[in-house]
Amino acid sequence: MITQRDTVNGAHFAFTDRWGGVSAVPYEELNLGGAVGDDPGTVRANRELAAKSLGLDPAHVVWMNQVHGADVAEVDGPWGDRPVPEVDAIVTVRRGLALAVLTADCVPVLLADPVAGIAAAAHAGRPGLVAGVVPAAVRAMMELGADPARIIARTGPAVCGRCYEVPEVMRADVSAVEPAAHSETSWGTPAVDVSAGVHAQLDRLGVRDREQSPVCTLESRDHFSYRRDRTTGRLAGYVWLD
């Protein structure tokens, strides 16, 4: 259920795999995405299971309506009856409030400055990398008092640069914005390495405490992959502060 978990100075980071939930094929088992065609009640049950496994109150996890952009929302609690905004990053100064990001090949980015008490979660696919969603999230944290030198960054399971095949023109467009994302598949065709691009952006912003998951979602049958399966579930990354 929780494939990776890390705690640093009261900042908690966690990423799920696909097992331990109640969804049926093709979303088996721990689908946490509410907009992929799975039964809503099943998704709610999966979110409760995942949250409780982390010691979190499922009602106090904040989710996003992700659209592959670069908009950031500051949050101080769950949305309740309000519409969930179309953003790809959320930031909070409320300790104990968990922020969640959904992925199935894109890069889940979890950020925290434990000293300032600021956390953020971002969804960085290829479009978000180019749009600058991760720098936008870091800047939002800085505006609230975070220091990049104190920010801890963890990126979760995502399609790797050896597997993310794209047309040459697309690779060129991405590389023009972020050269570190330039890659080649293991079979010798143009590719994009979004995780490498995200970490290069974080490095330029002064974020030094960074760790990247070794898991490639397309290669791992323990993780959901949109590129591999098309109709599939979604993984989640969670970040919160004591």
Automatic annotation (TrEMBL):
It catalyses: inosine + phosphate = alpha-D-ribose 1-phosphate + hypoxanthine; adenosine + phosphate = alpha-D-ribose 1-phosphate + adenine; adenosine + H2O + H(+) = inosine + NH4(+); S-methyl-5'-thioadenosine + phosphate = 5-(methylsulfanyl)-alpha-D-ribose 1-phosphate + adenine. Its cofactor is Zn(2+); Cu(2+). Gene3D superfamilies: CNF1/YfiH-like putative cysteine hydrolases. SUPFAM superfamilies: CNF1/YfiH-like putative cysteine hydrolases. One of its GO terms (molecular function) is oxidoreductase activity. Keywords: Copper, Hydrolase, Metal-binding, Oxidoreductase, Transferase, Zinc. Belongs to the purine nucleoside phosphorylase YfiH/LACC1 family. Homodimer. Purine nucleoside enzyme that catalyzes the phosphorolysis of adenosine and inosine nucleosides, yielding D-ribose 1-phosphate and the respective free bases, adenine and hypoxanthine. Also catalyzes the phosphorolysis of S-methyl-5'-thioadenosine into adenine and S-methyl-5-thio-alpha-D-ribose 1-phosphate. Also has adenosine deaminase activity. This is Purine nucleoside phosphorylase. It comes from Streptomyces brasiliensis.
